[in-house]
Design goal:
With about 280 residues, the protein is mostly beta strands. The chain is about 5% helix and about 50% strand. The chain is built from 3 helices and 20 strands. It is globular. About 45% of the residues are buried.
Length: about 280
């Protein structure tokens, strides 16, 4: 059961459904999400609560460690102990839409854990047509520390699990019989792109391609978190090598633009669409 949704449209076609108040168990760190997101031809390119990771919720913002509170869902990685079931899950609570149009919205959210508000978020989402077979999803999130003391964002990597620097923007893609291809402008394969910085990164499935691009200089400094073999998912890592501090009253801002295309794009086509969506 869900309540209060927004549907994104491009050229009159529905391309994404945004759920603001999902009814989910606390263990999944309830939070708003986009699902399904589709190509212009109608192919779904997201998954919701798959069997391999029930806490993967389409497209959204999720962080496994905000001052010890889990806003990602599932188990928490504990140093020298490993993935551990803890009663430390937070939730992202929709407060209001400040703007709501057919092609996007501006939303206010509260990140709440242990009965208190840690972060306040402004999330801006916009859908823009690019060609007759591709459109772009533009997502910006701004996280402000509303507590009287310092906060920091961490990841399993900063807590002792190498290669697991997930947390931030995250897109759980459609799982198919074969793993998708992944490539950047100069390298390819999960081992080659995971944990690396790149202006853009493409994930190509059987009949679709997603091209992710950091749309600000600060966002582009965050390495990509990439999975293709175990499951298809791409994120932009807020805490890759070290924890990200947020002093009281300070704000962290990131912006990721994702090209959603029908067909399997090559490097030139992916780069061209990114330029159209983000600019040179």
């Amino acid at each position: 059961m869900t309540t209060d949704t927004a549907v994104l449209h491009v050229a009159g076609r529905p391309v994404g459904r945004y759920v603001t108040r999902p009814e989910l168990p606390a263990r999944l760190s309830p939070r708003p999400y986009l699902h399904p997101v589709t190509t212009l031809a109608g192919t779904a390119v997201t998954e919701l609560g798959p069997a391999d990771h029930a806490h993967h919720l389409g497209v959204g913002v999720a962080v496994p460690d905000v001052e010890g509170h889990n806003f990602w869902g599932g188990r928490t990685f504990v140093r020298d102990q490993g993935p551990t079931e803890l009663d430390n899950h937070g939730s992202q609570r929709h407060s209001a839409f400040r703007l709501r149009d057919p092609d996007g919205f501006v939303e206010e959210l509260r990140w709440v854990a242990a009965g208190g508000e840690l972060l306040r978020e402004r999330r801006t989402v916009a859908a823009t047509g690019l060609t007759d077979s591709a459109w772009a999803l533009d997502l910006t999130f701004s996280l402000t520390n509303v507590t009287p003391g310092p906060l920091s964002i961490g990841s399993p990597a900063t807590n002792g699990r190498p290669g697991a620097a997930y947390g931030g923007f995250f897109w759980r893609a459609r799982k198919e019989s074969g793993a998708p291809d992944v490539f950047t402008a100069d390298t390819e394969g999960e081992a080659g792109v995971h944990g690396r910085r790149a202006d853009w990164l493409a994930l190509a499935g059987s009949t679709w391609t997603l091209v992710f691009a950091g749309a600000t200089a600060r966002t582009r400094r965050d390495p990509w978190f990439v999975r293709t073999g175990e499951y298809p998912g791409v994120g932009s890592s807020l805490a890759h090598d070290e924890r990200l501090p947020i002093p009281p009253g300070d704000t962290v801002v990131r912006r990721v633009v994702t090209v959603v295309a029908d067909g399997r794009l090559d490097r030139d086509a992916a780069a061209s669409l990114v330029r159209k969506a983000v600019g040179p």
